[in-house]
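AP2/ERF domain-containing protein
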Amino acid sequence: MTKVIDQKTGQGCGKKDFYVYAWERPDTKEVFYIGKGRGVRAHRLKIHNPFFMRVYERLKNDGVDPRVYNIAEGLSEVEAFEIETREIARFGRRNIGKGTLTNLTDGGEGSSGFVFPATRKKKMSLIMTERLQDEELRAVWSAAQVKRYADPEQRKMASEISTQRYKDPEARRRQSDALIGRPKTPEHVEAVASALRQRWESGEMGALIRAGIVAAPPGKANSSGYKGVSFDKQSGKWLAQIQVEKKTKHLGRHLTREAAAEAYDRAARMYFGDNAYQNFPVTLDAA
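Structure:
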């Protein structure tokens, strides 16, 4: 007889202590995640992927309290993998347009505590490198990626995963080490150059640069501490200036640097709107 575990306490762990669980929204009975685990895994929200967390939090914000329940208990890990894979296939994954689940894979992977040996990792890398020599296969994968990232939800999810990954200094170091000394192919260099040329010719790049300058705070070399303000030694006053369409507009000389900064702020709002950096945003807005 197999042992049934208590998810709340994690007691009763043995060789057959795995289970397969499902998360569903109780109002519609729609299942949005299938997982496999043991102990209290099903109830540990933060171990789930960002897509799952986004759906879970949206439901909570809408007043819907998602519930989790076990589909099967008292399983070996192999049995749990088999049921997890079957259930994911039955409900379908939302990120590939085939169902309701927020799972990012088809399941059946990630054996608990298993680490691939270095020799296995090297062998897998060589196999993948060999596969990528096939132009037809690369084209198929590329088309699949383009279709995948056409979905705004998918792009947002990928961005969140990437952001989370790069919060880890060790992950950043590994990525950097992998790229050091790796030569770029001529096709890659030309593709990047072509994309930059197109953005520049369309005016998009120039607009982004100008927007960045307008929104930027005063530089480190600015001794006044206020954007658009400098000291005029000849008059002994503070000079206010602003750049508009590559031309410098003089905004007068003032007795104090604060008065000059306010003159800059007024001009910045007039020419660039609320996106412009302002030296006294709170004070002037209140006025």
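Residues 1-113 form a domain with the GIY-YIG endonuclease fold (CATH 3.40.1440).
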